[in-house]
From TrEMBL:
Molecular-function annotations in GO: ATP binding; ATP hydrolysis activity
Portion of the parent chain present: 464 to 725 of 749
ATP-binding in keyword set: yes
Domain AAA+ ATPase: 46-187
GO cellular component term of the entry, any: cytoplasm
Protein name in the entry: AAA+ ATPase domain-containing protein
Length: 262
């Protein structure tokens, strides 16, 4: 009965506009939502599932959450590693129950984060079994559930990984994760959005130049930019004068953000 503890039915409210860039990704996810709502309007199904891959902290999870917020679909999120930590047999049951619950609550989204930990290659080099049987059984269960999906309308399956090369090719066959999309680091415009979103609601000093910060953050992930915004608050707080009774809180200045980025 505890197997489903890690399912998160109430994802944070994330809108498309909170995500900088990633236009292709947003379009593909939006199309899948349309299909899930009105399959009869499509000449061909755009696929059953989407696998998102790319470096850490670049909005894979965020995009899955935004898909849930924007569509209003129920959201079932599970981390591969958590399934793997369950007792023998329990994790397969957890996967089956997950699909059952998603069907019952449709329209819904199932999001497998870190899918490589359960959907990894079943055999290693030379054909020797390189994976524990628990993971193999779970992968088989997952494939069965996705194949049995034919009659299953109203469930959109998403998955994410940082290691696409480790994914068992069986997961990418037609009728499973038909679409494999790269979610890359943010570009200049996306970095500007990430700074804007993460300084929203903060008292920001007039000298803060977001395009300039975004230029300096080139090569950084969204997660790193978010962390820099948080660190800037700590820096600003540290230099705040207790005796300054004119204002009750410090302002975040350009220098604080630059310092945090470094
Ligand atoms: P991981 O592979 O580590 O799970 P991920 O790609 O799933 O990474 P997210 O959890 O989606 O990464 O992103 C981490 C945080 O970084 C988000 O909560 C968000 O604050 C910020 N972020 C990343 N990319 C963007 C973006 N394009 N727009 C706005 N925020 C972003």
């Amino acid at each position: 009965p505890t197997a489903m503890n890690d399912i998160n039915l109430n994802p944070p409210t994330i809108h498309w506009q909170d995500i900088g860039g990633q236009d292709t990704l947003k379009k593909a996810l939006g199309l899948m939502v349309k299909y899930t709502k009105n399959p009869e309007r499509f000449l061909r199904p755009p696929g059953k599932g989407i696998l998102l891959y790319g470096p850490p902290g670049c909005s894979k999870t965020l995009s899955a959450q935004a898909t849930a917020t924007e569509s209003g679909f129920n959201f079932f999120a599970v981390k591969g590693a958590e399934l793997l930590n369950m007792y023998v047999g329990e994790s397969e049951r957890a996967v089956r129950t997950l699909f059952e619950r998603a069907r019952a609550a449709s329209p819904s989204i199932i999001f497998f984060d870190e899918i490589d930990s359960i959907g990894g290659q079943r055999t290693g080099a030379g054909g020797s079994a390189s994976r524990n049987t628990g993971a193999v059984n779970m992968l088989t269960t997952l494939l069965t559930e996705m194949d049995g999906f034919e009659t299953l309308t109203g469930v959109l399956v998403l998955a994410a990984t940082n290691r696409p090369e480790a994914i068992d090719p069986a997961l990418m066959r037609p009728g499973r994760f038909d679409q494999v999309l790269y979610v890359g680091p943010p570009d200049q415009a996306a970095r500007e959005t990430i700074f804007t979103v993460n300084t929203r609601g903060l008292p920001v000093a007039e000298d803060v130049d977001i395009p300039e910060l975004a230029r300096r953050a080139e090569g950084h992930s969204g997660a790193e930019i978010k962390a820099a915004c948080n660190d800037a608050c700590v820096i600003a707080q540290g230099s705040f004068e207790d005796e300054d009774e004119a204002v009750s809180k410090p302002q975040v200045k350009m220098a604080d953000l630059e310092g945090a980025l470094q």
